[in-house]
Amino acid sequence: MKCVICSKKVEITVVKNYHYTMSGLDNIYLSDIPVSKCACGETPKVEGLHSLIVKKILQKNDLLTGREIRFMRQQMKLEAAELAEQVGVGEDVLLKWEDGAESAGLVYDKLLRMEFMLNYVKQSDAVSKEPTRKFAEFIAEIITKQGIQVKEEKISISEKEICNERLIVSSASLTKL
Ligand SMILES: [Zn+2]
Q1: Is the pLDDT of residue 139 over 80?
Q2: DSSP string, 32-77
Q3: Distance from the alpha carbon of residue 76 to the mean position of ligand 1, in angstroms
């Protein structure tokens, strides 16, 4: 197989532990992921990955980091001003949280997660309602049990989890047809 951009041969190797930084997050590690390499660089096979990262971040026990807040907002396709309005703060305040200059604190962390969860449920409208409801209940439980410190946990994701997520995402777009 040749790359359409650099026209060099593309080599695909399975990487045991791949530090995935393309999402703007620093704490995502993929295990046993096929990665294609050519002169352009490395590209991991990651269809469905971002929606999986969204789920993992929603489920974390510690407060969201600034990078995580920004990643979630971008995944929900929200402008900073829109999300700021949804949680009732100024855009400048939200940007300080995202830059890590200030912590959102426990109350706003809960609010942010609720907004992200609502957006997630809206986006996954076509997915069978039952798992979405279960997921929402699960997150509601996490929100009440949440810790009070901001912590960047290592998030590990395996090839199998990505495959499962891809199935959910593609069956969702099939139901839309
Ligand atoms: Zn290339």
Answers
A1: yes
A2: EEEEEEETTEEEE--TTHHHHHHHHHHT-SSBPPHHHHHHHHHHTT
A3: 30
Is the predicted pLDDT of residue 104 greater than 90, yes or no?
yes
Residues at Cβ < 5 Å from ligand 1 ion:
3, 5-6, 38, 40
- Please give the pLDDT value at position 147: 84
What structural domains and CATH numbers belong to the chain? 1-46 (no CATH), 48-151 (1.10.260)
At 124 the pLDDT is 67
The tokens of 82 are what? 């829109």
Question: 71 alpha carbon to ligand 1 midpoint, in Å?
Answer: 27
How close is the Cα of 10 to the center of ligand 1, in Å? 7
CA angle 35-3-161, nearest 5°?
Answer: 25
Distance 34 CA to ligand 1 centre (A): 16
